[in-house]
Specification:
mainly alpha; two-stranded antiparallel sheet; two-stranded parallel ribbon; 19 helices; about 60% helix; about 5% strand; binds arginine
């Protein structure tokens, strides 16, 4: 492939170190697609004849079939997917194969292949995200008006609808999808035609080439084009953040599935047992989902670190971009359907959630009651704080304090104060858009539904 100026062969270990075929062979579709488009442009530019073009296309189709049917036989000397395809093409069609690489470099070729691969990966991951959103949405719809304790600092805060909490994990995934769609725009930019660094000397119609490959634009600078891996870093950031969103969903569910909470029961299909303790049913699906954010974040850091300080244009360092990219995509393509199945089959215990609600979670509502009667919020907060302490000292629930204690606490307190101690009423009052009242949540569900049904 490049042996002309060399006297000796490559050291065996160096070959292993250098060869990317073991991992970049998975871009065989993209590599062959790119080569077919290139062959068409070579003919268009008058560099090869129509007949030579057709020979190349037929040969590439045959190589495609070999990969597709698992018949492709790699050779130890195949350095990467690009050289492997070209080597095999030569075996099939003879000397004309040597014309395919005219005016092209592996530098613009590999950049094109990876972009084509990433575009497909983004599409699959968007699908996975959307399916998980649907599972959350279906659970939110099934939750009806069930109420649960809402936590801040993991301490009981205020009652919220179960559906509201479920949807709190829907919107991060929506932002992930939007971020990926934005990343896709910068990924669908064609580097081919940039050559090694300076651009091809052939009269290639790059816009037509881009259209042929389904790319939206062509790169404006050949030096930048062969070294730009921003789209990979962006993709990996999107993937890392998806991992973090999955880990937060997972952590909520792991806590809620513990005996102490008992809010959710996971399906056996997404749990495992202990080899030692017969009573155990562990939320392994969600524990692994929680942990995957580690490797996803690691992949992002790997690529950023590889890119930092690289001199202009292509450097072999860039070969190290692929494994983190592939790993991130593989991780999500398994994690997202598992998350979907585990969420879809989880059973939420409305009774346990209701039982975990206590009157103290309505302390803010008592303060709001005073505020509605003209008491400044800060003062109301203080008054209710004292009532809470009083209830604690007497060892009773806030609502169980004798009415006289309330009346004595502040002149604005009326006999109707005890009506505040109604969980459903508290929830129903929060009806601004984005809040937890059943009518607001129904509106939120409708909005969420529009998002998952789009596209
Ligand atoms: N396997 C290489 C990579 O992944 C392809 C490009 C090689 N280019 C070169 N000038 N050696 O980046």
């Amino acid at each position: 492939m490049w042996g002309g100026r060399f006297d000796e062969g490559i050291d065996a270990l160096m070959a292993r170190f250098n060869n990317s075929f073991p991992f970049d062979q998975r871009m065989w579709r993209e590599d062959i697609r790119g080569s077919m488009a290139w062959a068409r442009q070579l003919a268009q530019a008058g560099v090869i004849s129509a007949e030579e073009r057709d020979t190349l296309l037929a040969g590439l189709t045959a190589v495609y079939a070999e990969f597709d049917e698992g018949r492709f036989e790699a050779r130890p000397a195949d350095e990467d997917i690009h050289t492997a395809v070209e080597r095999r093409l030569g075996e099939l069609v003879g000397a004309v194969a040597g014309k395919l690489h005219t005016g092209r470099s592996r530098n613009d070729q590999v950049a094109t292949d990876v972009r084509l691969w990433a575009i497909e990966a983004i599409r699959r991951i968007d699908d996975g995200l959307r399916t998980l959103q649907q599972a959350l949405l279906a659970q939110a719809e099934a939750a009806d008006d069930a109420v649960m304790p809402g936590y801040t600092h993991l301490q009981r805060a205020q009652p919220v609808l179960l559906a509201h909490w479920l949807l709190s994990h829907f919107w991060p995934l929506q932002r992930d999808r939007e971020r990926l769609a934005d990343c896709a725009k910068r990924t669908a930019v064609l580097p081919l035609g940039s050559g090694a660094i300076a651009g091809t000397p052939l009269a290639i119609d790059r816009a037509a080439l881009a259209a042929d490959l389904g790319m939206a634009a062509i790169s404006p600078n050949s030096i930048d084009a062969v070294s730009d891996r921003d789209f990979i870093a962006e993709f990996l950031f999107c993937a890392a953040l998806i991992g973090i969103h999955l880990s937060r969903l997972a952590e909520d569910i792991i806590i809620y599935s513990s005996a102490e909470f008992g809010f959710v029961v996971l399906a056996d299909a997404y749990s495992t047992g202990s080899s030692l303790m017969p009573q155990k049913k562990n939320p392994d699906s969600f524990e692994l989902l929680r942990s995957k954010s580690g490797r996803l974040t690691g992949n992002l850091v790997t690529v950023l670190t590889v890119l930092k300080g690289l001199p202009a244009a292509y450097d072999k360092d860039l070969q190290e971009d692929k494994e983190p990219l592939f790993d991130a995509a593989d991780t999500l393509e398994l994690a997202l359907p598992v998350a979907t199945g585990a969420v879809a089959t989880a059973r939420f215990r409305h009774d346990r959630m209701r039982a975990a609600l206590d009157d103290a979670m309505l302390a803010t509502d008592v303060a709001d009651y005073l505020v509605m009667r003209g008491v400044p919020f800060r003062e109301a907060h203080h008054v209710v704080g004292r009532l809470v302490r009083e209830a604690e000292q007497r060892g009773v629930a806030l609502s169980a304090l004798p009415p006289g204690v309330f009346l004595a606490a502040h002149p604005a307190c009326g006999n109707d104060i005890l009506q505040v101690f109604d969980i459903d009423r508290s929830v129903a009052q929060r009806r601004v858009p984005g809040a937890t009242a059943p009518e607001a949540v129904r509106e939120q569900i409708a909005q969420a539904r529009r998002y998952v049904e789009e596209r």
